[in-house]
């Protein structure tokens, strides 16, 4: 990566994680915004003065209820604006990691511009990466970073400070007069070890650890946090938007670099559990095995899990045993469908369903909790095929199953198919793009039918698990209720209501 020395023109940089919204029954999520923290680390190395506001964390106790039932939690716009006035940034970078955040990002940007039009606003994340032209139609937004932002944000600041043209910065969207210009992303950071560790010193790490709700789920450790060790995915799953951010080539941090960060987390913050955010932690078997070997050799004695799932087609029984020995206690298996046609013909996932049970059995023999991820409601899928997926999930003997609804995120092949064939639901809205709400209609089903169907599957799976292992199911449900009783009660009530 190329670092440059800034002059005073764009020296003060504020990075903001905006307030989050959640529907009834959804858990609150608070975890360090690693994307912003990585960018901050690079900018500090370049000599810029940087501050991060993580609104969901800092205003975790504050909630506003909207008329549609959603709740927004995090610092109010007024409080964020107060921080802006105090820091007086030259440029603000706002994360828009999900499409559901888009309207919040626009509202916040307008408030900032009302205070001071001279402050430049740059947004990045999955949504602006997918639809940069649409984002730049909003006059309150000046720039869009497309894909990974560390080098691009630094190059933008250097060009603005020097008064140079922005045309040479790949992966940048901007306006020239009334014209929107998009420089397509071409280059990706080849050596991820070059990037400094996330600037966690700019975040209130102790508050994350007190709340201890990364991904909104319960943890085995008392002080859990997230890291990411790789980028990119060569698979072609129809519903995934990761290619726009990280590209298709699998790029990695070296095992030694990963271990160095884990050591820092243990010594500096007392971390006792790691959540690997990678989409493909085990894609390179040899690299993954070396990471786990080093964790064992170092005697870290950590708990760890994979909340985003693992690539099953690269797993082996030997690797699973090594994962357990290094501290893994929970694996999320990204299976998606139990029907071969849906899995390969529609989703395009390179997975052999006949091998899945063997791997799950191996995990359970090691004492690892096995959770399955399934996605239902794709264009071209029928209710009979969805029922096959449910039967397949029961056949696997999973400890947990997460049945989600196919969600057409902008930037995915699924979104393109839905737009082309007219499958987006009436009143399609970005704020509805969560995996519990259906946004797809086809000749085979309506959104309401899919939501009811999936709710029934969830209740049926829970009932089946209780009958098969009442004590284990009771223990898991008790743990969830104890960690967040209000959210769990709302979730259960909503599932029953939808199923009826």
Q: Ends: how far apart?
A: 56 Å
Tally of separate domains: 2
Computed CA radius of gyration, to the nearest angstrom: 22 Å
* Class by SSE composition: alpha/beta
In round numbers, the mean pLDDT is 91
Question: For the record, what is the CATH homologous superfamily label of the largest domain?
Answer: tm_1862 like domain
Using DSSP, what is the number of strands? 18
Q: How much strand?
A: 15-25%
The CATH architecture of the largest domain = Alpha-Beta Horseshoe
Order of strands, main sheet, comes to 3-1-6-7-8-9-10
Largest sheet: 7 strands, mixed
Say what the CATH topology of the largest domain is.
pyruvate-formate lyase- activating enzyme
CATH class assignment of the largest domain? Alpha Beta
Give the overall shape.
globular
Tell me the helix content: 40-55%
| Helix count, DSSP H or I runs of 4 or more residues | 19
Flag low-confidence runs: 1-8
What does this structure look like?
- A hairpin with a 5-residue loop joins β4 and β5.
- Helices cover 42% and strands 17% of the residues.
- α12 packs parallel to α14 and α17 crosses α18.
- The chain has 500 residues and is an alpha/beta fold.
- It has two domains: 172 residues, 3-Layer(aba) Sandwich (Rossmann fold), CATH 3.40.50.2300; 288 residues, Alpha-Beta Horseshoe (pyruvate-formate lyase- activating enzyme).
- The protein is built from 19 helices and 18 strands.
- A seven-stranded mixed β-sheet has the order 3-1-6-7-8-9-10, with helices on both faces. A six-stranded parallel β-sheet has the order 11-14-15-16-17-18.
- The termini are far apart.
């Amino acid at each position: 990566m190329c670092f440059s020395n800034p002059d005073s023109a764009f020296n003060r940089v504020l990075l903001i994680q905006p307030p989050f919204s959640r529907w009834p029954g959804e858990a609150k999520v608070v975890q360090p915004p690693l994307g912003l923290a990585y960018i901050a680390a690079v900018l500090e190395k370049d000599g810029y003065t940087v501050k991060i506001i993580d609104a969901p964390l800092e205003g975790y106790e504050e909630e506003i209820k909207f008329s549609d039932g959603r709740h927004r939690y995090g610092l109010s716009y007024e409080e964020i604006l107060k921080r802006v006035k105090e820091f007086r940034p030259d440029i603000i970078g706002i994360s828009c990691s999900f499409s559901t955040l888009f309207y919040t990002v626009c509202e916040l940007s307008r408030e900032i511009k009302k205070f001071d039009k001279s402050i430049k606003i740059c947004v990045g994340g999955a949504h602006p990466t997918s639809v940069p032209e649409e984002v730049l139609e909003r006059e309150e937004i000046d720039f869009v970073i497309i894909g990974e932002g560390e080098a691009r944000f630094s190059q933008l600041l250097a060009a603005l400070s020097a008064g140079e043209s922005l045309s040479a910065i790949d992966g940048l969207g901007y306006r020239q007069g009334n014209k929107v210009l998009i420089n397509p992303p071409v280059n990706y950071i080849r050596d991820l070890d070059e990037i400094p560790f996330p600037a966690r010193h700019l975040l209130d790490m102790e508050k994350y650890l007190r709340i201890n709700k990364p991904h909104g789920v319960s943890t085995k450790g008392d002080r859990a946090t997230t890291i990411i060790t790789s980028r990119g995915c060569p698979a072609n799953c129809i519903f995934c938007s990761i290619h726009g951010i990280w590209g298709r080539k699998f790029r990695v941090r070296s095992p030694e670099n990963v271990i160095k960060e884990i050591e820092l987390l243990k010594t500096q913050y007392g971390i006792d559990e790691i959540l690997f955010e990678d989409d493909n932690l085990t894609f390179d078997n040899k690299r993954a095995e070396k990471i786990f070997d080093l964790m064992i050799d170092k005697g870290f004695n950590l708990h760890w899990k994979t909340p985003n799932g693992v690539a099953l087609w690269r797993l082996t029984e030997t690797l699973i045993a090594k994962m357990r020995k290094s501290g893994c206690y929970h694996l999320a298996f990204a299976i998606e469908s139990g029907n071969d046609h849906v899995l390969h013909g529609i989703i395009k996932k390179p997975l052999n369903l006949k091998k899945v049970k063997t791997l799950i059995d191996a995990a359970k023999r090691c004492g690892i909790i096995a959770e399955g991820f399934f996605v239902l409601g794709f264009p071209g899928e029928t209710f009979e095929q969805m029922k096959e997926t449910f039967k397949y999930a029961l056949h696997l003997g999973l400890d947990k199953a997460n049945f989600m609804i196919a969600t057409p995120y902008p930037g995915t092949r699924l979104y393109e198919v839905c737009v082309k064939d007219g499958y987006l639901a009436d009143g399609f809205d970005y704020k509805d793009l969560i995996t519990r709400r259906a946004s797809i209609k086809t000749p085979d089903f309506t959104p309401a039918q899919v939501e009811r169907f999936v709710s029934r599957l969830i209740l049926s799976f829970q009932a089946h698990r209780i009958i098969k292992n009442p004590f284990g199911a009771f223990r898991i449900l008790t743990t969830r209720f104890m960690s967040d009783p209000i959210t769990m009660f709302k979730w259960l009530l909503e599932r029953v209501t939808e199923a009826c």
